Amino acid sequence: MIENPTSIPSGDSDAGLVHARQDWTSARFVEEAISIQFVYGTRYAASFMKNRMIDIDVALRVLLNPAQRRNHAPA
Fold first, then answer.
1. Average pLDDT over every residue of 40-66
2. For residue range 4-45, what is the model confidence (pLDDT) as tens digits?
3. So where are the chain's domains?
């Protein structure tokens, strides 16, 4: 059986990788949504993420809790 190369293996050795990005297309949409939020506001960014089927938990975390973003750079 061929394994998915983007999946994270289970077990104790992956403890530091629990939140690793597996979908780079979605990651790009999230980054774009952050830019949209900065220019047009949270409502437009949320709509953008919804239209691109970004998980609601991710959208809420990214848009409402900037300190919890991955690779967060101070503004």
1. 95
2. 444 444 444 444 444 555 688 999 999 999 999 999 999 999
3. 22-67
Tokens of 50: 């919804």
**Which residues have C-beta within 8 Å of that of residue 26, sequence separation ≥ 6?**
52, 54, 58
Residue at token pair 């437009």 = 44
* HSE of 17, CA atoms in CB hemisphere, 13 A: 11
More confident: 74 or 67 = 67
Residue whose C-alpha is closest to residue 37's, from 8, 63, 4, 6 = 63
Which two structure tokens, joined as six digits, stand for 36? 């949209």
* Rg of the chain, C-alpha, whole Å: 14
Q: Residue by residue, what is the 3-state secondary structure of 27-69?
A: HHHHHHHHHHHHHHCHHHHHHHHHHCCCCHHHHHHHHHCHHHC
